[in-house]
Design a protein that fits this description.
Blueprint lengths: L5 E4 L5 H12 L3 E6 L2 H10 L7 E5 L7 H12 L5 E4 L17 H30 L5 E6 L12 H21 L4 E8 L6 H5 L3 H11 L5 H12 L9 E4 L7
Parallel strand pairs: 1-2, 1-4, 2-3, 4-5, 5-6, 6-7
Helix pairs in contact: 1-8, 4-5
């Protein structure tokens, strides 16, 4: 059941995060939709205004201290304590170890790894406190959008991929730490998704179109959102903790 759930979704101003926020609202969940771009978040809230679940947009920077706490507080003020957190905010970086722009490394690690680590710590602590108060009477879900690049080493995209490798290990470690409280920490690993992610990160358009020609039809954000909705809708004793989804023709 996803209706009557209270969710926070980061990265909701575009791509996978936006699709997840929209899908959850349509399933009946109340959603705090968080992202950097206020106008896109307002447009999202307008799109789902007639959905069974309500959506509140909150613009901000997930790398700033206190922002995750702000999102959880917004959910509680609006509807009650959140029991779903979807971490979909992130960025890419084209280039190899020798060919990528070293001036962008620090920001990539900050957004993809350190901000994720802080989010997981804040949310898991909040969920554990709630679970200890009610003896784990309900499932609470933390869902992280990873990548197949975090499982398959690629010489063509290693800096971005290394941040995903690191995040994947965090997710499994946290799952082991909090699972006894009926907190389900789930990793979703999409393959190639046509979402605007590549353009925003500066990947070569011709390269990506060649990838699409060879591996397509590619996934779209709604494919990933459907998986997220399915995972958090499982009965409390069932946990699909690590899911890879690829275009059918994607070989690696």
């Amino acid at each position: 059941m996803t209706d009557r759930r209270i969710a926070v979704v980061t990265g909701a101003s575009s791509g996978i995060g936006r699709a997840v926020a929209r899908d959850l609202a349509q399933r009946g969940a109340h959603v705090v939709a968080a992202g950097r771009r206020a106008e896109q978040l307002k447009e999202l809230a307008a799109e789902v205004a007639t959905a069974p679940g309500r959506t509140v947009p909150v613009a901000g920077d997930i790398t700033l201290a206190g922002h995750t706490e702000e999102l959880l507080a917004t959910a509680e003020l609006e509807w009650g304590p959140a029991d779903v957190f979807v971490a979909a905010a992130g960025q890419g970086l084209p280039g190899t170890v020798l060919g990528s722009d070293p001036e962008r490394w620090e920001q990539l690690v900050e957004v993809n790894y350190l901000a994720m680590l802080r989010q997981l710590r804040v949310v898991a602590a909040e969920f554990r406190e709630r679970a200890e108060a009610d003896d784990g009477a309900r499932a609470r879900d933390i869902v992280v959008i990873g990548s197949t690049a975090g499982r398959q080493v690629s010489a063509a995209n290693p800096v971005y991929g290394s941040t995903k490798f690191a995040v994947h290990s965090l997710v499994e470690a946290l799952r082991q730490e909090v699972c006894r409280h009926n907190i389900r920490v789930t990793l979703i690993e999409p393959g190639f998704v046509r979402s605007g992610f590549q353009e925003a990160a500066g990947y070569d358009t011709a390269w990506f179109e060649a990838i699409a020609e060879e591996n397509g039809p590619l996934l779209v954000p709604e494919d990933v959102a459907e998986v997220v909705g399915y995972v958090i809708g499982r009965p409390m004793h069932v946990h699909l903790d690590d899911i890879r989804l690829r275009p059918t023709r994607q070989r690696v």
